[in-house]
Fold this protein.
Amino acid sequence: MTTLATEVRLASRPHGWPTAANFEIAQATLPDPAPGQVLVRNLVMTVDPYMRGRMNDTRSYVPPFAIGEALDGGAVGEIVSSTVDSLRPGDVVLHGLGWRSHALLDAKNATKVDPTVAPVNAYLGVLGMPGLTAYAGLLKQRNSSRAMPSSSPARPARSARWWGSWPGFAAPPGLSAAPAARTRSRT
């Protein structure tokens, strides 16, 4: 049994802002999954800033999109058909073949996610690459001597209050969110 998928393809390279003329909506026929593959019906996909750079034919850290080919990017979808025991129909997975209604991919490129923990779109945002990037940046900044404009040694309490204002984050070790004690009088 084959599956008819709708996909978004790059029709031409944009000059300036991308327009509808730079894209093509097309149909593709997907075969049944081969051994080690899964067929996924995409539920949500991501549109990230780096994708605009991939529309140009320039050398970068990631290859450019090919004209006439489906775009790709993060997506979360439901397994429709599987040839592996670890991923079964109905499982929800994160993968890299967005911009299409269905994706046929190697099971090793699909990561099972739990839709009862968070909405599925969260795995493309706060629980995905953007969230991990932000988290790593916060940790790196926290450990930096130039952490935040308000975190100089003279103002540790202000920095701790900043950290404490973010849900799920505590002040870095050694900083208290309590107001700083006045150590000298104003004269």
